Amino acid sequence: MVEAEEVQNLIRQGVTGVSHIEVRDLTGTKDHYEATVVATAFEELSRVRQHQLVYQALGALMAGPIHALALHTHTPASWAESQS
């Protein structure tokens, strides 16, 4: 089991330019999460590559302790647009 704060910290450490992050435990079991991440590192990358950067940041947690991760990744510009 993994705490949401640990997931959040690893993403902040592993993805460049994170300006906003939200991590929610979807089931209360600490292995199914939803994360919204806004980062400059995502600029000019496909959605698949953005998600791969997050998976890389989480490393070994994605091979077991985290069973499911629903990702919503945004550049700062796309996040600002989605918030208006």
Summarize the model shown:
The chain has helices at residues 4-14, 47-58, 76-83, and strands at residues 18-25, 32-39, 68-74. By secondary structure, the chain is of the alpha+beta class. The chain has one domain (4-83): GMP Synthetase, Chain A, domain 3, CATH 3.30.300.90.
What does this structure look like?
The chain has 84 residues and is an alpha+beta fold. It has one domain: GMP Synthetase, Chain A, domain 3, CATH 3.30.300.90. The protein is 37% helix and 27% strand. The chain has a three-stranded mixed sheet with strand order 1-2-3. Helix 2 (47-58) links the parallel strand 2 and strand 3. Helix 1 crosses helix 2. The relative contact order is 0.24.
What is the CATH first-level class name? Alpha Beta
Please compute the radius of gyration using only Cα atoms: 12 Å
CATH architecture descriptor text: 2-Layer Sandwich
- What's the total count of β strands? 3
* Secondary-structure element series: HEEHEH
- Biggest pleated sheet: 3 strands, mixed
* Helix content, binned percent: 25-40%
Q: Globular, elongated, flat, extended or rod-shaped: what is the shape?
A: globular
- The figure for the number of domains is 1
Strand order of the largest sheet: 1-2-3
Provide the CATH superfamily: BolA-like
Distance between the ends:
36 Å
Classify the fold: give the CATH topology: GMP Synthetase, Chain A, domain 3
Low-confidence stretches: none
Mean pLDDT: 96
Beta content: 25-35%
Count of alpha/pi helices: 3
